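We keep the chain:
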Amino acid sequence: MPVDPHDFLEVDSLLATEERDIRDTVRAFAQAELAPYVADWYEQGTLPDDLGPKLGKLGLLGMHLDGYGCAGLSATAYGVACRELEAVDSGLRSFVSVQGSLAMYAIHRWGTDAHKDEWLPRMAGGELLGCFGLTEPDAGSDPGSMRTRARRDGDDWVLNGSKMWITNGTLAAVAIVWAQTDEGIRGFVVPTDAKGFHADKIQRKLSLRASVTAELSFDDLRLPGDAVFPEVRGLKGPLSCLNEARYGILWGAVGAARACYEEALAYSLERQQFGRPLAAFQLTQKKLAEMAIAVNNASLAAVQIGRLKDAGRLDPAQVSYGKLGNVRAAIEVARTARTMLGGAGITLDHSVMRHMNNLETVLTYEGTEEMHTLSIGAALTGERAFR
C-alpha cells in the first residue's frame, strides 16, 4: 500500500474512535463554516458575532472540562479539535483556547460553586465569552512583577491597573483578572459591565488578525468580596491556566503546519515550470520531504503529550517541549511553503503567509521561546536559570 502523503506515519491511527470522530466533525465544520471566510476576517481584523454560539453548539468550548454543560472529553480529543481549528487559522484556535483553557478553566479549577453556576453553563454554550487578564505592558514573561493591584475596602475589593494583549477582551462578558494584593497574587471574576472596567481593541496588527485583541484597564473597579478565587494565591493559579492553554497550542501548531504543507504539496503538483510540475524537481521534493518529516514528528509529539496528560503524568516541562518544538517546526514549514508558492504565497488567496504571520505571534504568546527553552533546561539539569 502506498503511504498517505497527508499522514505519512499514520499518526491518526493512534487516535481512539471517539477522537477520530471528533477530528472528522471539527474538520468538516471548520472547512464548511470557517475556511471560506477566514481570509476576509483576517483582512478586516474581526470575527463574526455568531462564532461563539456555533462553537458552543458543537461542544468545543470547555470540551475537556466536566459538568456545567461541558462535554468532559479527553485531553487528546481536545487537542485534536485544536489541531483542526488551527489548520484554518490560529485566531480561531485562540478563541477556543482562551474561552475554554483560560477563562473557563480558571473558574472551573479555582472558582466557588457560585462562580461555576453563574458563568460556566452560558460560557460552554457560547452565549457568554470570557477573557483572561494576566499580561501587562511591563510584565510579560515575568508576571510576578505585575502592577495591577486589588485592595480590600470593607467587604469589597477595589481593582486598579491594566492588562495588555488580551484575546477576546472587547467581546467578553467576564474577565478573569490576576492582581497583586496584600495576600499575594490573587484571581478575580470581573463582569465586564462593572463600573471602572474599560476594554480598547488593539488595532494595526500584522499577525493574528482573525482574533480580537484588547487592552484592559481598571479604574477603582469595585467588586464584592466573593469575586475573588478563595483558595489559590501566588502564581500557581495563573500558571496552571497557562499550562492548559499551552497544551492546546502544541496541538494547534500541528494543524497550521499541516495546512501549509498540504497547500505547498497541491500547488507543486499543479504549477508547471520548464514543462514539468514543480513537484518533479529535486529541490522541491527536498522541501516537501523536510516539511512532511516536521509535520509528522510534531504530530507524534502532540499525541504522546496528550496521552501523558490523559494519564495524569504530564509535567509542565513536557508542555514546554511540545509548545516550543511544534511551533518552531510549524513556522519553518510555513516559511518554506511560502517560498514554494512564489509570489502567490504572499496573497490572501492562499493560506501560507497568513499562517506564517500568525505563527510569529504563537511563537511568543503563552510563553516565549526563551522561557520554554529555560523550562526544558531546568528539567534536564535540575538548575533554574531564571527565578
About this structure: The first helix runs from residue 17 to 34. The chain has three domains: 11-124, 130-227, 236-381.
